[in-house]
């Protein structure tokens, strides 16, 4: 399965859907990715939270690794900041601030 699709599937349902709750290799790989979240994974999480509908009109800027969180800004085509957000590295939750 495409890695981006697998990560998105994991974000929607983090439990492994295999019999007897045994994790498969793919599920374990995705869990490791989430545990040590990279900027690429954070960008995927933000894309999902903001939605493709809105990403066509806006861009993600200033993605920074700050301790337990990633911070980012959603900016319009004119460069003005529309919304700031935090991504929790441990849970994948996106909080708009």
How are the secondary structure elements laid out?
Layout: H1 3-12, H2 25-35, H3 39-50, H4 52-55, E1 59-66, E2 69-75, E3 81-88, E4 94-96
Antiparallel strand pairs: 1-2, 2-3, 3-4
How would you characterize the overall build of this protein?
The protein has 97 residues and is an alpha+beta fold. It has one domain (3-96). It has four helices and four strands; from the N terminus they run H-H-H-H-E-E-E-E. It has helices at residues 3-12, 25-35, 39-50, 52-55, and strands spanning 59-66, 69-75, 81-88, 94-96. Strands 1-2-3-4 form a four-stranded antiparallel beta sheet, with helices on one face. Helix 1 packs across helix 3 (39-50). The longest helix has 12 residues, at 39-50. The radius of gyration is 15 Å and the shape is globular.
